Amino acid sequence: MSARIARPPWPMSRGNLARLENKKYRQRWGLYILEGTAAIRDALEAGAPFHGILVDDRLQDHPEERELIPVLHQSGVAVQQVPASQLKRISGLVTPPPMVGVFVEEPPLEPQIPSRDPLILALDRVQDPGNAGTLMRTAAFYGVRELWFGKGTVERYNPKVLRAAMSAHFQLRIAVNVDLEDAIRRSKKEGCRVFAADAEGEDRLAALDESHPAILLLGNEPNGVDPALLQLADARLAIARRGRIDSLNVAMAGAILLDRLLTGRNS
């Protein structure tokens, strides 16, 4: 990652707004972009660190977004009006919403060991941003609070990750660039069990014993969990195929395994 440089002041100049479309500058400044009212409301409720809000003239035709402006002002969030063309430049959407939030990245976290939660979700080199974001949202839906992005996993603030997660990152404690082998070994010494998704594993699983923490380990899309990590697993979990499609993507497989672990359903 590039070295951090001074974050541009708010309101942002036209030149710096244009630079927000560039990953290099977002990473240097430690900024990321969220689009739409629902995500911005979630950010307010979570106390996320705003850099500011960008709006354009279309706001007058969107009452839900317009009604959010006084709430933002009351919360001390600065609002800057820009041309619609400017929002389109920094958005990843063909038709961006009339309100875009610019947020300050949270500092990176280390894995919480020993775990205070019944289940940790760990991602080993999951590189597709849509899969990673969907897994974040699924984890938050099931009440998982701790998520580990192992080394080689997509950037947590990748725009496609954020879009798929739909603000779930505000509900999760996310450790990044985690040495999974080290973190799993240390967790096992604290009594943590490890379940790894593996196509060659067993298609049966007892409900999670919430009195003992566990890790669900999901692997790289084409290659699965690293063999060295598989060796550390207490159980290898598979999902039986009954049709002609030979596999599921990691986001779908993760959702099924989370459901089985947290509800005890095996069919």
- Rg (C-alpha, Å): 20 Å
What percent strand?
A: 15-25%
Q: What is the N-to-C succession of helices and strands?
A: HHEHEHEHEEHEHEHEEHEH
Query: What do the pLDDT scores average to?
Result: 92
Overall tally of domains: 2
Count every helix, treating DSSP H or I runs of 4 or more residues as helices.
Answer: 10
Helix content: 25-40%
Low-confidence stretches: none
Helix/sheet category: alpha/beta
Widest sheet, order of strands:
7-6-5-9-8-10
Total strand count, please? 10
Overall description:
By secondary structure, the protein is of the alpha/beta class. The protein has two domains: 14-104, 60s Ribosomal Protein L30, Chain: A, CATH 3.30.1330.30; 119-263, 3-Layer(aba) Sandwich (Alpha/beta knot), CATH 3.40.1280. The chain is built from ten helices and ten strands. The chain has helices at residues 14-19, 23-29, 37-46, 63-74, 84-90, 129-141, 159-165, 180-189, 227-230, 250-263, and strands at 31-35, 50-55, 79-81, 99-104, 119-123, 146-150, 173-178, 193-202, 214-218, 235-237. Strands 7-6-5-9-8-10 form a six-stranded parallel beta sheet, with helices on both faces. Strand 2 (50-55), helix 4 (63-74) and strand 3 form a beta-alpha-beta unit. Helix 6 (129-141) runs parallel beside helix 10 (250-263). The radius of gyration is 20 Å and the shape is elongated.
Q: What's the arrangement of secondary structure elements?
A:
Elements: H1 14-19, H2 23-29, E1 31-35, H3 37-46, E2 50-55, H4 63-74, E3 79-81, H5 84-90, E4 99-104, E5 119-123, H6 129-141, E6 146-150, H7 159-165, E7 173-178, H8 180-189, E8 193-202, E9 214-218, H9 227-230, E10 235-237, H10 250-263
Parallel strand pairs: 2-3, 5-6, 5-9, 6-7, 8-9, 8-10
Antiparallel strand pairs: 1-4, 2-4
